[in-house]
Automatic annotation (TrEMBL):
UniProt keyword Amino-acid biosynthesis, yes or no: no
Organism, scientific name: Eleusine coracana subsp. coracana
Record function comment: Putative transcription factor.
Pfam families in the record: RWP-RK
Keywords: Coiled coil, DNA-binding, Nucleus, Transcription, Transcription regulation
Coiled coil: 272-299
Molecular function, one GO term: DNA binding
Protein name in UniProt: RWP-RK domain-containing protein
Domain RWP-RK: 184-270
Region described as Disordered: 149-195
Length: 327
């Protein structure tokens, strides 16, 4: 073979249901090559790889020859996988196939995203193909998005538009103090100031990994004070800490998962067709919320969608009615 070019056509990621952090990936490539005396030829090549993923350290471990392979599930004809599919001890969490027009239904989980797992870039066999599917934003691109959001917020302030009440509450609840008060003694404990070199070394990606935490916990994780963290956020164009919006979306997603579980178990009250429609609608709503949560991670200054706010209000009303009925 004189020369050949490989193009990614399929990617399926499976997580182990018995070993935490263990991942299998199945890669499908369309290969175009030129063979002496024959000319251009095309064929498909499939590769299965094994990884162990964690924020402390990720590595490629290969697939032992004496263990069942995920690719064996698709041995009849062209391999085909779908999200949620179980193959032995493995469950598919990402499915992409350009030939079969299959796309991921939601953003990748944190362990398969460079903002949630920076060690992912140390695995080029996995990261490069994930990047082709999800088109991850670079740190410089994220900074530009945050700066754009910050400028829009400033323009709205100067134009006299009122600040969103929930955002204002987020901002007011986070004080600038770098000290903590002991609830038992009432004494204030001062923390040692972080080293300037350490502060300067904190990147936007590291800050983004803490968006799911309250700002005080995030500052402790990053080993800096709250005021220093807020200053770093302003440098990157992040006007407000997005923890509460992400927490609100997580709560709605968890509520939907509970409702989905109830619908799946309830075969008496609902006919099967109505039950299937309800499950489909709830699953679609969950995917929308997951996509919105990932969008806020990418652009933390953005507000929740009007539809999400309405849905959140409906959930609160339903919870209150259930509480009053149980009293």
């Amino acid at each position: 073979m004189d020369a050949c070019v490989s193009i990614l056509t399929a990617l399926a990621i499976f997580e182990s249901r018995v070993e935490h952090g263990a991942v299998r990936s199945v890669h499908g490539y369309k290969v175009v090559g030129r063979k002496a005396g024959v000319g251009w030829v095309r064929w498909e090549r499939w590769v299965e790889r094994g990884f162990v993923l964690s924020t402390a350290g990720s590595r490629e471990v290969g697939v032992p020859h004496d263990t069942p392979r995920v690719l064996q599930a698709g041995c009849l004809g062209r391999p085909a996988f779908r999200e949620g599919q179980a193959v032995g001890d493995w469950r598919c969490i990402v499915a992409f196939d350009s030939v079969a027009a299959v796309k991921p239904s939601s953003p990748p989980p944190p362990m398969l995203c460079p903002t949630g797992n920076p060690q992912l870039k140390c695995l080029p066999n996995l990261y490069n193909d994930l990047e082709k599917v999800f088109q991850f934003q670079s740190e410089e691109k994220l900074r530009q998005l945050f700066q754009s959001d910050f400028e829009e917020q400033q323009q709205s302030i100067h134009s006299g538009e009122p600040m969103n009440i929930s955002d204002e509450a987020d901002y007011a609840s986070d004080t600038d103090s770098d000290s903590d008060e002991d609830p038992q003694s009432g004494t204030v404990q001062k923390h040692q100031r972080a080293n300037k070199t350490h502060i300067a070394s904190i990147t936007l990606v590291e800050i983004a990994q803490c968006f799911h935490l309250p700002i005080r916990e995030a500052s402790k994780t990053l080993k800096i004070g709250v005021s220093v963290l807020k200053k770093k956020c302003r440098e990157y164009g992040i006007p407000r800490w997005p923890h509460r919006k992400i927490k609100s979306l997580d709560s709605l997603i968890h509520d939907l998962e509970d409702v989905l579980g109830d619908q799946t178990r309830d075969d008496v009250q609902l006919e099967k067709e109505k039950q299937a429609l309800a499950i489909r609608a709830l699953t679609k709503r969950k995917r929308m919320l997951e996509r919105e949560k990932e969008a806020i991670r990418q652009k933390p200054a953005s507000d929740l969608m009007t539809e999400t706010k309405q849905f959140r209000e409906d959930v609160f009303k339903r919870r209150n009615r259930a509480k009053r009925a149980s009293d």
